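User: tokens in, sequence out, please.
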């Protein structure tokens, strides 16, 4: 089971994670947001939240799926950087899935989201280095 300190509870954390990068598979969508570098000193553990809507099924089905996802995420926490906010959204196709199927879809969705996150980070780094070189050229030309 996912320990309490890794569970996301604040709506602000959910909103922040949903603004992050997404990766999808047949049964789940994963959203990941990492803290900007200026907040790196105030890092928390990885926080994971779950969204299982009524379109997935009745209360019994939703809670079973929530427990399965929570259990699967416990083994995948080390994949994420400290301070990451992760939201797992179950799609209606997940309702009759086995844990093995959900695990495969989670791995696919996490890989896609992390790939997009890495691209975003590299673009930020390129922008930062290009602005530094422009600043250096501007100060040396004066």
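Assistant: Sequence out:
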């Amino acid at each position: 089971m996912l320990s309490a300190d890794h569970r996301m509870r604040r709506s602000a954390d959910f909103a922040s994670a949903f603004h992050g990068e997404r990766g999808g598979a047949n049964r789940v969508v994963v959203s990941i947001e990492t803290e900007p570098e200026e907040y790196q000193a105030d890092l928390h553990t990885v926080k994971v939240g779950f969204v299982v809507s009524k379109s997935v099924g009745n209360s019994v089905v939703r809670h079973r799926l929530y427990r399965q996802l929570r259990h699967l995420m416990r083994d995948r926490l080390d994949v994420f950087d400290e301070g990451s906010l992760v939201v797992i959204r179950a799609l209606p196709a997940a309702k009759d899935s086995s844990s093995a199927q959900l695990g495969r879809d989670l791995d696919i969705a996490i890989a896609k989201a992390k790939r997009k996150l890495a691209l975003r980070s590299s673009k930020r780094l390129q922008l930062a280095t290009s602005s530094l070189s422009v600043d250096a050229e501007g100060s040396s030309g004066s």
